[in-house]
Amino acid sequence: MYSLSFTFLNQLIEGDEFYTKVEKNKPIEDCEGWTIVLMERASRFIWSLKCGKKDRALFLHVIKILKRIIKQTKDLTLITDGERRYGLILFEICNEVMKSGKVGRPPKVLPKGVKVRIKNKGSQNGKRGRKRKKYEIPHREHSDTVQNVTDNDIHANHVEAFNASCRRKHSALRRKTNTYAKKKSALQRVLDCYWIVHNFINEHVSTKQIPAVFLGIIERGLTWEEVLKVQYVV
Predict the structure, then answer these.
(1) pLDDT of 42 strictly over 70
(2) What CATH code is carried by the domain that includes residue 219?
(3) Which pLDDT score is estimated for 7?
(4) Residues 38, 13 contacting (CB under 8 angstroms)
């Protein structure tokens, strides 16, 4: 919330999700261990690290954060690997009518400066119907939006590397152990702590800077003592 008080000139955000088990081994559609990550590419700042069932409610909660960022920025690009619900929900809750002066009902478009790109991974060999393009623009965009995203830039490699790092560092996220999180709230508590450490305390191995400092949210990184002294007002 503090970071949203600033005005950003450009945001290129990667969206991806990873899965772990909660409480016990359940079918994937019933498990609350799905975690959605929204990471700003240049600074590696994580805007969202939310877990729950992989349903509309989880995506809606995350995309509402992007809506608030859009109000502060002049240029935002959202890139995902194959998951179309990011762009679908963003378009539903954040669109505007573009009046061009032409006859007929004006079309709904994404706000000026907002772009969504999808990279469809894998192949559809053996499936009926028309194959999807590898790189897609899923929704109509504003005519004044600058189209400066190349196909080579449409990927979520940085956030996928972050997901792998999370699995190495947290036992509840590892694939080959039985140390499941006992409750969804317990898993979210671990993710919240890691969100603070990643954004405000530790330097990123690639940028050699603390993500929040790189993005201009704070002037210097925080210490554990300073974090623990922060007062939380309900």
Answers:
(1) yes
(2) 3.30.420.10
(3) 62
(4) yes
